[in-house]
């Protein structure tokens, strides 16, 4: 077995730092949302509807029109609560593999929807990459409730 040399912390601890940082990033995404606008007026979903209506890929336009557009308020709650749940789950290391997989999928969904908005793409790609690394490297092995509760082989 190859030994991993790190500075200051063990490899598992560095992975936990990465997971916790990703969780804090999701919490910041949740914190800075105008919740009143999102949840009462569905402003975020209206913005996404405009983006989807001009999307170059027909399957994105059609999927949005079939799944999201008919239920804007419910979808606004899904987005806002998903970002909060991901942030809390990853920060505290609770159900980490599930949160990492869900976050990866959400970032990829955001990436596909906003394919034209390159200003957002760096964030979505970076968060997806961190999710993938944390998932494949089992970042819940250290400093997590998953480890404390002996979940997922932690």
UniProtKB/TrEMBL annotation:
Keywords from the UniProt entry: Membrane, Transmembrane, Transmembrane helix
Membrane-crossing segments per the record: 6-27, 98-118, 125-143
Source superkingdom: Bacteria
Protein name: Thiosulfate dehydrogenase [quinone] large subunit
């Amino acid at each position: 077995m190859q030994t991993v040399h790190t500075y200051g912390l063990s490899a598992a601890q560095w992975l936990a730092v990465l997971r916790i940082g990703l969780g804090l990033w999701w919490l910041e995404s949740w914190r800075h949302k105008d919740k009143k606008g999102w949840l009462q007026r569905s402003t975020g979903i209206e913005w996404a509807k405009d983006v989807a209506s001009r999307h170059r890929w027909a399957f994105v336009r059609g999927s949005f029109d079939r799944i999201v557009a008919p239920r804007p308020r419910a979808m606004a709650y899904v987005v806002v609560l998903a970002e909060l749940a991901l942030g809390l789950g990853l920060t505290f290391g609770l159900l980490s593999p599930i949160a990492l997989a869900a976050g990866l999928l959400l970032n990829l969904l955001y990436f596909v929807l906003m394919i034209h908005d390159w200003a957002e793409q760096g964030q979505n790609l970076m968060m997806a990459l961190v999710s993938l690394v944390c998932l494949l490297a089992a970042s819940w092995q250290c400093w997590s409730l998953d480890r404390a509760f002996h979940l997922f082989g932690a």
